[in-house]
Amino acid sequence: MKRGLVIDREAQMIGVYILDSGEIYRGFPRKKVLKKTKIYAGDYVLGEIVDSNTFTIEDVEERKNFLKRPPVANVDKVMIVATIKFPDFDNFLIDNLLAVYEYLKSDPIIVFNKIDLLDNEGLKELNKWVDIYINAGYDVLKVSANTGEGIQNLKNYLSGTISVFAGASGVGKSSILSKLIGVELETRDISRKLKRGRHTTTGVKLFPFGDNSFVGDTPGFSNVDALYFMDKREVKDYFREFLRYSCKYPNCLHINEPQCGVKEAVERGEIALERYKSYLRIVNSGN
Fold first, then answer.
1. pLDDT number for residue 188
2. What SS3 class is residue 268?
3. What is the DSSP letter of 88?
4. Which of 47, 94, 159, 203 has its CA 20 to 30 A from that of 268?
């Protein structure tokens, strides 16, 4: 059987990308498959090519994760797009998103866009936050969708992955997508193969670029509350830098407890105060 990836899913329409050839077919799941699972963009499927347009789906591989918003499976990396200016940087939103995507078992990375618009003060601010997030344990990339700076580096970084976007409105998620893959061209090609108009879809699409690399056309979360996904006692487990330290009490919340390794690290400057304040704000929002 052939192995494919579902790259287009809306209502009864399923687009399958054959991994060893790059060809796109309209997928038709067998009844036994439909009884067992619902199929989403990002699902790896096994099946047979019937003709030049049709692929029968015989089985769906087990998912490593599933994001409900957008509904997409097997996401390797989430690009959390941010800007220092236009709009102004919101570290609390970023810290919420990082915790949520850690919880959802996707690997979040931070992509700072619009770096070409920054003056000297803006560049200082950018470098400050880049250092904070790198020290916290996250990968950080800097790009300009306007000039193309850093886009090739982002392409290389995402090679061989399924990735989606998150971030506030106005930070340039769609512009980065266009630079990565050429949205209009890819949309037209996929839609012709599936016998569907270009601008009729509201479902999730994954666009292929490079060698078995795929990126979603949906922006993902633009505003999020971590406590919608997890209990406030769990939040500490999704701040990466906190996990480097041990406390006297195993269930320490890193707030009022004595001999707390995390609070001591904050006092020594090993954990950024800005990150710790975000953590407290998230936890206290559940009171």
1. 39
2. helix
3. T
4. 94
> Residue 183: its pLDDT value, please?
58
Give pLDDT tens digits for 4-57: 999 998 878 999 999 999 999 999 999 889 888 899 999 999 999 999 999 999
107-112 vs 66-68, strand pairing mode? unpaired
pLDDT digits (tens, 9 = 90+) for 211-234: 889 998 776 677 788 999 999 999
Answer for the pair 88, 168: CB distance below 8 angstroms, yes or no.
Answer: no
Q: Tell me which residue of 37, 215, 21 sits closest to 109, measured CA to CA.
A: 215
In the chain, which residues have pLDDT < 50?
184-201
Which part of the chain is CATH 1.10.40.50?
229-284
Alpha-carbon gap, residue 197 to 158, rounded angstroms: 29
Q: Which two three-digit tokens encode residue 177?
A: 């997508």
Is 36 in contact with 79 (CB distance < 8 Å)? Answer: no
Dihedral, CA of residue 215, residue 218, residue 219 and residue 220, to nearest 10: -100
Predicted pLDDT of residue 157: 96
Ramachandran angles phi, psi of 273, nearest 5° = -60, -35
Residue type, 194: L
Question: Tell me, what's the pLDDT at 146?
Answer: 94
| pLDDT value of position 35 | 84
The domain over range 229-284 is classified in CATH as 1.10.40.50: yes
Q: Are 126 and 253 in contact (CB under 8 A)?
A: no
Where in the chain is CATH 2.40.50.140?
2-60
Topology of domain 2-60, per CATH?
A: OB fold (Dihydrolipoamide Acetyltransferase, E2P) (2.40.50)
Number of other CB atoms surrounding residue 224 within 10 Å: 17
